[in-house]
Structure formats: structure tokens, C-alpha cells
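Q: Give me the 3D complex with zinc ion.
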Amino acid sequence: MEKTFRVCPRCGSNSIEEIFGSIMGQKYKCKDCSYEGPLIIEANKELVEEIKENYKKRKEG
Ligand SMILES: [Zn+2]
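A: Here is the predicted complex, encoded as C-alpha cells.
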């Protein structure tokens, strides 16, 4: 089976912090791009690389 990673949907980082205690339920925070929200994604290595590339491109304009 292919290995998957739980990563930030914005920048592809796996420096994800789980935040509990919210009324809305579980929330996640990315330490790298300061994304904050209920959604993280489970991606394989190829998809993680793709997200990172897209993020880099967007950042560079
Ligand atoms: Zn991020």
C-alpha cells in the first residue's frame, strides 16, 4: 500500500498542529504558512510535491 501524508492543503507542509476545544470541532493549523481551518488533506508523495510546487509558484507570483 502506498504511503500517505497528512499535509496542509495550501502549502503541502506536514507541520500540522491539531487544535481542539473549538465549538466547530477539530481545527488544524499549519506552522509553515499559517493556514488555519478544518481541512487537511491526505496525499501521497507525488501529490505533496505538486502542492508544494504550486504554492511556490503562487508565492513567487
Ligand atoms: Zn501550510
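A quick observation: Strands lie at 4-7, 16-22, 25-30, 36-37, 41-44.
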